[in-house]
Amino acid sequence: MSKKNNNKNGTFGYLLQSAGVESANFKVEPIIKTKISPNKPDKNSDSVDSWEKIKQESIKIKSSDKNTCNINSKKCKPDIGLKKDSSKINKNRLSKNKTKSNKNTHQNNVSQPPLDLSCYGSNDKKVKAINASSSLDSKPTIQVKISGAVYPNTDDFIIQNRNSRLKPSDSGINGNLSYSKNDEGVLIIGLDFGTSNSKIIIHDPQRTVFYAIPFFDIGVNDRYIYPSRVFLEKDSFNLDETGKCLSDLKLPLLNQSANDEDIYHAVAYLALLIRHARGWLFSNYSEVYRNVDIIWSLNLGIATATYEDSYLYKRFRHIALAAINLAGDSSEEITYDLVKNYLISTLRALTNFKYAGELKTHPDTVNVFPEIGAQVLGFIKSESWDDKNRPFIIMIDVGAGTVDVSFFSVQRKSGQANFSFFSNDVFFNGVVSLHKRRANWLKDILTEADIITPSINHFLDDIVSPSLNLKRIPESCINYLVNFDVKQTRTIDHDFFDEYKDRVKRLLVYTRRKRVPLNNDNWIKLPVFLCGGGSRMHFYKDIIEKLNAFEPSWLHLIPLSLGMPSNLRADGLSTTEYDRLSVAYGLSYEKLGTIISSAEIEDFSTQYLPRRELPINQYDDG
To answer: How far is it, in rounded angstroms, from Cα 428 to Cα 403?
Structure first.
């Protein structure tokens, strides 16, 4: 059960006191202004069972006469003009949600005081932000077109595999195999902690080999990808789908308002992943590592904008350090109390270096790094990268919750990559956000048209449940339902895509005007990497074509792909799927390179531009 703390400073106030650190209240300006309210954990089986029922009902309707327009015995209304335009509907929904959110926030403040994380320091270094316009809403009057019985289109949704997790024979608790130690070596864990899924690669620099860690047996799709969810049975965390499913692990951590349990859940989850990874390695390569005294290192990936926020940077590093040390605890069960103990001990080590030696994994070997930089690391280390003639890159990483965009240069020096981030942005237009907006939009127009049924309403609720763990959603909002369409040329998809496109375009315009000089060679052949799970959708891919059509025609993006490295051991992984492991691969390098953040680069400064750009001092004025 959850451990609640009545200390006025919350759990981390208690951690500070336990660590002997004087706490202080302060207000941190969060880098992401959007407030994310953590979803209540769903029971593991409810949504999946409900989904199967909906699927069976859809099959029955599909097999019946499709020419009969019968929606719960109501007369079909083929062309229905809504009395309320969707912008008003959205405003009403937002108003209701805001009232509800304020009420919940008040209740949470009463039972759980705000966290005191003054050990992380205040966020004095302001990240240069690019102002975003408000959401573009649908145009008024939606006319619904119905060609038969409307029912859920379950065929266009694919659920992530629910195969049992591969259980290594070694527990992964001990960082070394229990044999005589004749050699010493370093193993680096690259951990890509995503909103919906996580990936791990272990790098052995002495043997120049990278191991992709599988979570499922050979033959299972996405065997190297594990859902970002942990289960809680009584007071013990597990990955074996036993107990309550806790699936909203990462997004709450991006806000200052993250509560005690958000941090506990993330630490427990990451510790269990690390145990799995080490257990798999020792189970399959015991002959290689039985006589090696291993020093473990961990690199955790975070968004570039998060990396530049000192408050969030320290939070994630603390979580990473607590997780890898918790993974090595001799207790097989990971409980709330055990998580709290490691948060205390690692905080003490981070705030007072004399305690660092008490940890199994030293703070010096645990770091966080921008995911986007890590993602291209393998590519820029290859001979195919021309850093002299093409020093700039734009990366668009489409994840489940967010889209992370960065414009940066990479220069290689003495075998090391030097990153200069000229501009970056992170915004909540990922696949899950699109999916939820679509479901809400469909509910609104179907309700206003008076044709929504209990089964459709239930379906639209179920498909946004995190525990359902969808692998694929339809390319269009219209495809969520069978025999359903709208007369308008614009839907919620057009509005959502415009938000996504405008944020990326705004970043490029800002960079051209104030960061990178007016040199058409940089802009007419600008390399772009579109990656992340969402990049497989044509919906998100279309941005390259749309941006290349931008007037005036000073921009032309050249899409590049990330080739699979030859030193990666990943049985069954296709080259087209490698990009999903590319962040973990880059993070597993021993030397990730130097970082110059956008906050360190002044507008119109040439200090961090590549050498060939230095004589140019002309910027775009419009």
So the answer is: 6
